[in-house]
Design goal:
single chain; 603 residues; alpha+beta; Immunoglobulin-like; 3 domains
């Protein structure tokens, strides 16, 4: 769960201001330098691995860490365009471009390491000291360096170094060149030197002292040489090549777009984006087009056990998804990518259940989770009119006034949602069926002992309630239905006298009480969502993509679809082999495996 930053009291702020200004709080005192006042009496000893890398940082190892921990915000290539970036910016955070060479030049590596370790909470960047080892943090920093150091730049810098620097500093940067003349030289392989020296410092040194008087390098050449010099202390690799290699393998996915609206047209020749997730969020994505039969094929995919693959398509202005799939025993997977014709008829949409869950109360704030389940009673997918920027839209929910730290169980603003004032629009289409879509919204609001909440709903609601863990907190204007047992603990159910409300109604409930140290079921938003889903009739959920559910089908339909998938896979495999995209040996093995699966299911 995201915690709010510590907010010192006004008294504490005044006291701090007085000290820094040299004011007297109790009688005359000698003015002391601010630097002395800010220096702790005892300076804690930092671990050696925080002062310098335990082993040379490695770009290839760092690429794995970056994909798991950083790419969701900073983007695959460090361009600040990750799937979570828009949500961070919408909350007032900052997602910088890591490829900005001017920033990289100025910052001392140890300062970068400290930022990765501790985070910058005011900009909504978490710290990773608790989840990554010191070596992993240095490795991911090396990957960030490589994002702004192309192979061409490194080769140019190495040539400059070889011609103008190696004679003194040594071919390997150890300070042992033949022309050093016994003068002490910095060792570029020293991990402490690597941690303490910025690119700008290296560049300034190239223009300082008599020893460098004969160097005739412009700024771009100095920068190239400095980036090459830094590679003596870390294991450099082309960041783009490493990224491509990490996301490549011998996996193949085929999806057939199928229009499930009776009489609907067959989709064809449309782009399909394949999004790849792990437990931390989206790792990368690829885009291909449906062929004229409505089939899209993705090849050369990584088959990592923790990767989930999910395709999405825009059809008739609405966004649709298939269920996420994983590579396990086979390297060829097939599935259906369902789409529907669309309707803009709002009367088709109802909220079957709305649960409002109290997750936490602390430090003058209360954390609430709102969990919506939507029904679509038509045979078409529901969408509303596109927004001003052309975004696809479907259902909308209100955002509470004074809500802070708005977040979601899954993709947030910019990835799945768009916010306009106090209204949040879902950009996913709501497919036909009961409980065909869900939204989990989490937020904090100020709370001091009691608070009246008013929540506007834009669709008819069949049932709503407030759920509170067993603590000294209650919903004073709702009926207490007693404790309900969840796998994570006990929770108390409060309901209105009339569960049903009409579209446009305002739900009102008042919370009162000030619990201290109360146990709250669930450690984070996803755990809370799972508990709510269990309480709301045990909906089918799928790992990290629980926020995109699909209707359950009977066993006979599953078998029929599996047969269709396998037949389609064999046909597509034949086509790929005929086109020369698969080698004979791999083709025969994959075809035999698919035929074996087909025989098993047919029997």
């Amino acid at each position: 769960m995201n915690k709010l930053p510590f907010r010192p009291s006004a008294v504490a702020l005044c006291a701090a201001a007085a000290i820094l200004a040299g004011c007297t709080m109790a009688g005359a005192q000698t003015r002391r330098p601010v630097e002395e006042l800010l220096t702790p009496a005892v300076v804690p000893t930092r671990p050696a691995e925080e002062l310098a890398p335990p082993a040379p940082p490695d770009v290839a190892r760092g690429a794995v860490v970056y994909a798991n921990k950083c790419a969701a915000c900073h983007g695959d290539a460090g361009m600040a365009d990750g799937p979570r970036a828009a949500q961070v910016r919408a909350q007032g955070g900052l997602v910088p471009r890591l490829t900005n060479i001017d920033t990289q030049r100025a910052v001392e590596p140890r300062a970068w390491f400290d930022l990765i370790s501790r985070g910058r909470i005011e900009r909504l960047m978490p710290g990773f000291a608790g989840s990554l080892s010191a070596q992993e943090r240095w490795d991911v920093l090396a990957y960030v360096w490589a994002l702004a150091a192309t192979p061409e730049t490194i080769r140019e810098g190495q040539m400059i170094y070889s011609q103008q620097c190696a004679a003194c500093h040594g071919a390997q940067g150890r300070g042992d060149g033949a022309q050093a003349g016994g003068q002490p030289m910095a060792s570029f392989v020293d991990p402490r030197w690597l941690a303490e020296t910025s690119l700008n410092e290296m560049m300034r040194a190239m223009s300082a002292g008599d020893a460098h008087a004969n160097l005739n390098l412009n700024e771009a050449q100095q920068l190239a040489a400095a980036q090459a010099i830094r590679t003596f202390g870390y294991v450099y690799a082309d960041a783009q090549a490493v990224r491509v290699a990490a996301n490549s393998g011998d996996g193949m996915l085929m999806f057939a777009a199928v229009n499930r609206t009776p009489g609907g047209a067959q989709p064809a020749n449309l782009p399909v984006t394949l999004r790849v997730y792990n437990s931390e969020g989206e790792v990368f994505s690829r885009t291909e087009r449906l062929d004229d039969r409505g089939v899209v094929t993705f090849t050369d995919l990584a088959v990592q056990s923790d990767y989930f693959y999910q395709p999405e398509i825009i059809y008739q202005g609405a966004r649709f998804f298939a269920a996420p799939v994983q590579f396990t025993a086979t390297r060829v997977l097939t599935d259906i990518l369902p789409v529907y014709d669309v309707t803009t008829d709002t009367n088709a949409v109802t909220i079957s259940e709305l649960h409002i869950f109290v997750q936490d109360v602390r430090d003058g704030f209360i954390t609430l989770v709102e969990f919506y389940l939507f029904d679509n009673l038509s045979d078409r997918a529901y969408v509303s009119q596109p927004g001003a920027a052309g975004q696809t839209r479907s259902v909308k929910i209100s955002v509470p006034k004074e809500a802070l730290n708005l977040r979601f169980d899954g993709p947030g603003i910019g990835a799945r949602f768009v916010r306009e004032g106090d209204i949040l629009y879902d950009m996913d289409a709501v497919g036909p069926g009961l409980r065909s879509s869900s939204i989990t919204m989490i937020y904090d609001v100020p709370y001091q002992g009691s608070r009246l909440f008013e929540r506007t709903v834009y669709y008819p609601v069949a049932r709503w309630d407030v759920l509170i863990p067993e603590m000294d907190l209650r919903a004073v204007n709702l009926l207490d239905r007693g404790a309900q047992q969840l796998s994570s603990g006990s929770i108390r159910l409060f309901e209105p006298a009339d569960l049903r409300v009409t579209a446009g109604a305002v739900l009102r409930f008042e919370l009162a009480g000030q619990p201290r140290g109360a146990p709250v079921p669930g450690e984070d938003a996803r755990a809370v969502a799972f508990g709510l889903i269990a309480l709301a009739a045990a909906l089918a959920a799928g790992y990290v993509l629980v926020w995109r559910t699909r209707r359950q089908v009977d066993d006979e339909a599953v078998v029929a679809r599996e047969r269709q998938r396998l037949l389609m896979a064999i046909a597509e495999l034949d086509r790929q082999h005929e086109a020369g995209r698969l080698k004979d040996n791999a083709y025969r093995k994959r075809r035999a495996a698919l035929k074996h699966q087909l025989r098993d299911i047919w029997e």
